Amino acid sequence: MTDDTSAFDLIDDALDERDLTALARIAGDLDPGPLTDVLERLAPAPRAVVYRVLPKLVALEVFERLDPALQAEILDALRDEEVTAVFTELDPDDRVGLLDELPASVASRLLRGLPRAERDLTAIVLGYPAGSIGRRMSPEFVSVAASSTAQDALERVRRVGADLDSAHTVPVVDGSRRLLGTVPLQCLLSAAPTVAVADLLQEVDTAEASDDAEDAARRCVGSKALALPIVDAEERLVGLLTVDDALRLLEDADSEDQARIGGVEPLRRPYLSTPITGLVRSRITWLFVLAIGATLTVQVLEVFEATLEQLVVLSLFIPLLIGIGGNTGNQAATTVTRAIALGDVGTREIGTVVWRELRVGLSLGLVLGTIGGLVTTLIYDGDIGLVIGLTLAAVCTMAATVGGAMPLLAKALRVDPAVFSNPFISTFVDATGLVVYFLIARAVLGI
């Protein structure tokens, strides 16, 4: 059975008929990936029923694939001993993500129920600030001394790190746990047993545990390394960020940026499993912000009401002008926000970006203004065509410049650049674009 839709229908039918035997058989035939997709589409109660009929190893793998919010819902439906067993099997960094979704009393109880060694590892990750890479790294790794031989290092990997996801990258440290470099596991396997690890050492990029998680993840992916060592302020090794975790982190960050660019808060869970109230909360705040911003447009129209009364034809072009201005600003903001995320530009390049976007906006404005002015002249008259042409040129230039600058200003203020993107810029350009429009109309038409 490979089709997710048919699998969902079969599981849904088994749930309706309360046939747990059939449910267990159908769910057991699915791979963890498709099974996770099915669970994400179910409501909380039936999701918990399906989860409880899964074999233990499959259940754990599926649980690790779910978003923390859904993990919390499943734990809420399990017995205490089942919750403890699942929580203990998670990696420390995954535990911390789940703890952030749980009530404080439940989180404290789960932490107390962990074995001492696992509780200590989890506490290491919990000790770092939210948003830092220390909060997302794995504190479980196997390191070797530079003076070790390849054979000694392999034996240590087999003894200590055989079950670790990060065992493919072996950090090399000195006596004070300071990172000297790494050795790929493949090099240890192919090297002569007596070769010193120091002779196989490779320099590697690192991130400090307090660094921004998204920046560190991009560094990991950009270096094409299987894992990025995480160090403290004294260059001592404290954890590893695997490329799988880095890619997952970037996917979450990209989803968050795209949501905010579109004027909603990120859901942080699959759409079909998000309650209606959650969808409303994710949108209502931005709608209030945009509604308040739209009052600026109303105020501008009220100020220039006399101008519109003298030449009503001007009102026909308002949707065109504010639409083009808003879209131009959004294009610039989206492009620069993406460039910031990829590390192509930073706050130091704000002058360069503004100058580039000003020229781009002016070029777009001249092209659109020329075409718009000619068409308007043919339909109405030359004066109206001149007003529309000049306004398009001015609005496009202004919108692109502001749209390019806003994300970098947000970055400088340590605010998410996506927050300053499309919704804010559209509102700003609508109001200022109308002011420009009416001032040009008064100057050209003498009204």
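(ticket continues) Second input and output from the same batch:
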Amino acid sequence: MKNELKNGDSLKPSFGGFGRLVVLGGGESGVGTALLGKAKGYDVFVSDKGKIKEKYKQVLIHNEIEWEDEKHTEAKILNADIIMKSPGIPDKAPLVKQIREQGILVVSEIEFASKYTNATIVGITGSNGKTTTATLTHHLLKGELEVGLAGNIGDSFAKQILEKDYPNYVLEISSFQLDDIVDFKPHIAVITNISPDHLDRYDYKYENYIASKFRIAENQTKEDFLIYDADDEVLTIWLAEHPVQSTLLPFSLVKTIENGAYLENGNIIITINNNKIIMPTTSLKLEGNHNVKNAMAASTVAHLLKIRKQTIRESLENFQGVEHRLEQVLKINKVQYFNDSKATNVNATYYALESMDAPTVWIVGGVDKGNNYEELFPFVNEKVKAIICLGVDNEKILSAFGGMVDVVVETQFMSEAVKIAYKLAEAGDNVLLSPACASFDLFENYEDRGRQFKEAVRNL
């Protein structure tokens, strides 16, 4: 197959040649990249230090792509022309340091894949809300456009380009994926917000993490757009000190915005080049101020891409939300159970507690990522009647909230946590799983944690 590069081809060395492509990591993005690379004429090798899942092994075998797992054979890696590194592998890994010392080009999947499409790309990043915003944006666009949803969601971007190159893509992009871009440039970039997260990957320097998020706009030109939260001081201060080329479209709950989106008398008002549309927030199925912001960002994208107002309104009305993100599970004895397992940092839990409108039994805990719980104090004082700590080490949570709440219980079992919550909650209360922590001490991942919660609730 002819190896045609699109979206410019300034990547060097050997990008777009029939060179050797080594893929580090045999997960969704890695295998997708391997398939696309092979189709474009590369000599492909996949290497994973862990165990490659059986379903991915079968894909590699079926497509006659050479692979290894549970080891990295340096001789087979260091002769690469280009290396696609899965986002989970940190730059501090000795092998990655060696690769960089040898001057081999390291890219992320979104960088590699974007070279083989002329699609209009909407790239969405942020510490919180990016999954909901990406899913909602895709939902608003798909009524009138052919559009793929990729990045951190669903089938990999590379695989979708290979199998069905959509004319438009919505990509949910993490800071780890942005760390390894070179030329990648979304036509529309969205930054939902920035709060401290993953600082262990950024030398515990907040500014490094912020800079990483802003890489989404670094290759943009004045023909491109950056949509961002104008109420987020981290974003506004950074933009004032590090101007970007793109056209800015801010959104705000409290300011009047001339070009962008704002809230007025319960309506979202979006203006782009004097073209105004008005959306009542009553159309929103999702609750909470953070979801008004997610809707503003998604609707601004839709308005930019000329989606009709009626379609936007109807799509906002019927959007169901994202699993494990403030998901309403069941109402039992007039107690509503919420699964917010995706809240793996304090800022995400802030939004969850903010949206609680009844006394709440809060299930919290897991692997602490250097959390500062202070911003939660007002909500805990006002709304939380009991805390259930679900983690191996709950010391920090106990010392932060022990004096605020009468009932604090510890457990290491989800089924037990839910049974305790059932006993503590009275008619009209909420039970909220919003851990503010990573899940790896007791669960495989946040999805596993959320599913166990839902199963335990259904078994009450």
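Agent notes: Residues 289-304 form the longest helix (16 residues). The chain has three domains: 20-107, 112-318, 327-458. Closing as not reproducible unless the customer responds.
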